[in-house]
Task: structure prediction
Amino acid sequence: MKERFQKIFDLWKGLPAGKKLTFGLALLGVIGMSVAIISFTGGSDQMRVLVSGADSKDLAEVVEILNSKQILFEYSESGDSILVPEDKRAEMRMELAMKGLPKTGDVGFEIFDEGNFGISDFVQRTNHTRAIQGELARTISMMDAIRSAKVFVVKPENNLLLSEDPNDRPSASVYVDTGGSVLDRNNVNAIQFLVARAVKGVNKSSVSVMDNQGNVLSEEGDEGGVAGVAGQMMKAYQAQERRLEQKIETMLAKIVGRDKVVARVSVNLDTKSSTLLDEKFDPDGQVPRTSTTDKDQATTVETSPQSNAAGMGANVPNVSQDATQQEPIMAKSDEQRESKTTDFEISRTLKEEMQEPGAIIGRSAAVLIA
Result:
């Protein structure tokens, strides 16, 4: 190495003064140009979406402003979006907002800044949906792993009668441009949660997420039916197997080393669900609940008529025909009856046991130690 530097030094010493000056100026020019490029780009090569979904007229005006500001920009693959360095994005968004750009494409709540006098209720509701879609698309585009996004919200028509059809519920679809990278599950969950909380009536399971490569990022297991149950059971299998594998690997890694052990576990889960209902009665634990007492008293009198004369007087009991004397009593009986009814509450024990699917009924493991 020392000999090489000595040769370079001897070569430099043997050059004439004119060539030394030319070489030095060229070296200073390269260094100066590199510094200018770094300072011009702000040291950031991460390009983010500035305008998305605008027409060609708006894009031309945006490009003119970017050129006047000497800011580097790129077009998206679809040609309807403009990307700028990440550190220049906020500044240019403020600049475009002051100039009222873009006038088309994804708009937010600035759509209500103009006068809306005289428009119909349908147009007002449509503009509100467009504003929510635009604001959600802008918010999702601010995520580090996403270059641009589009949000589509579908709402059913306003009817007086509520429909029980699940297809009549509001839903949303999100399209994201990840620039070729893979969006992890945490980001997908965040997008679904954001859209579900921003749009009234939309559940997290009703939000579909798709990337620019045609991959459906939202899990179908969130839906109901047989497909949803199968997806949940597959997750349970994978979670149990991974948990046991990690326990084995961490246990053996302390002895043989972290990179020298590989464990694979296969589990067999009980996929059946059952409910056990046990009901017992205790006759010794009876308690009086209600008590009812009924009393009846009756008197019967039998008399003998004095004559068999016809007429009204003969048909009136216990009264003679001249209505002055009572007929003689032949027999008299008194009757009394009393009944008592008591209802008892018998002690009852009700026990319900539910067995959810997911219990481990079998397992096998394979361990490789290098």
